[in-house]
Design brief:
About 65% of the residues lie in helices and about 10% in strands. The chain is mainly alpha-helical and about 250 residues long. It folds into three domains: about 110 residues, no CATH class; about 50 residues; about 60 residues. It is globular.
């Protein structure tokens, strides 16, 4: 719902007070309020694209080393005022959606943020492939790497706005990170490792070598300047996650 200036100011005051008093239950309550209000307002503001947004099985991260940090406080206030800013100035929907998704998966330890799109905003895989100028086979590779889809396997569709976002290396990488987090919440460690090994094997086949042989000596800035930046950055994160999972399995 739209919040008055007075309510915005009061909510910010309550957040500051909870943070200063290290009141974790109060911070959790304010976070849930902001999340629910943001979901409602986004669906209202972009009613031509969305039916609704539904947070599911949400569990806010409450460990003190996370929720009592300045970074968390800043992100909470940013989302509080974003709930009104979207009505006052034009905001690119794909960037906004990815920003909200990223925030949600950073501040929660469980749950999903489900976006229900209007049917005319969704494309078939064939139509999406035509718009991107690639084959259906390549579209499936993109989907495996994190391009947003909706629907069950076999009848998946792709939101129109995400096709343009996929062309932007920074947004594509953000989308891939969100995809990996969402997937990790429903998989065992062994299943995660199997999935990651499969994705790494596809990159090794495509680029004819291992990540460390081909790109191990490059820093993030050098990778960002390459034409294959999205793939390489994703591959790098997969290798990091693989090592983390192996450590977890080996104790």
């Amino acid at each position: 719902m739209r919040l008055s200036t007075e309510v915005l100011a009061l909510t910010e005051k309550q957040i500051n007070q909870a943070f200063e008093e290290r009141n974790i239950p109060m911070l959790e309550k304010e976070t849930i309020f902001i999340l629910n209000n943001l979901a409602f307002n986004l669906a209202e503001r972009y009613s031509d694209i969305l039916h609704l947004i539904k947070p599911m099985r949400v569990r806010i991260r409450k460990e003190p080393e996370f929720i009592l940090k300045e970074d968390f406080l800043s992100s909470l206030k940013k989302m509080l005022f974003l709930t009104e800013r979207i009505f006052q100035e034009p905001v690119d929907f794909s960037e906004l959606k990815l920003s909200v998704d990223s925030w949600f998966y950073e501040i929660t330890s469980d749950g999903t943020l489900v976006f229900h799109y209007k049917p005319d905003h969704l494309l078939s895989i064939t139509d999406a492939a035509e718009q991107l100028g690639v084959s259906r086979a390549m579209m499936y590779k993109y989907m495996d790497r994190g391009l947003e889809t909706v629907g069950e396997k076999g009848s998946q569709k792709i939101p129109k706005h995400m096709l343009e976002a996929w062309k932007n290396p920074a947004l594509a990488f953000q989308m891939q990170w969100i995809y990996q987090v969402k997937k990790s919440r429903t998989q065992s460690v062994e299943e995660k490792l199997e999935s990651i090994n499969k994705q790494i094997a596809e990159y090794e086949k495509e680029y004819r070598g291992t990540f460390y042989q081909l790109f191990g000596g490059l820093d993030d800035h050098e990778i960002d300047g390459m034409s294959e930046a999205v793939d390489i950055a994703d591959w790098k994160e997969l290798e990091k996650e693989k090592q983390r999972l192996l450590s977890q399995l080996n104790g």
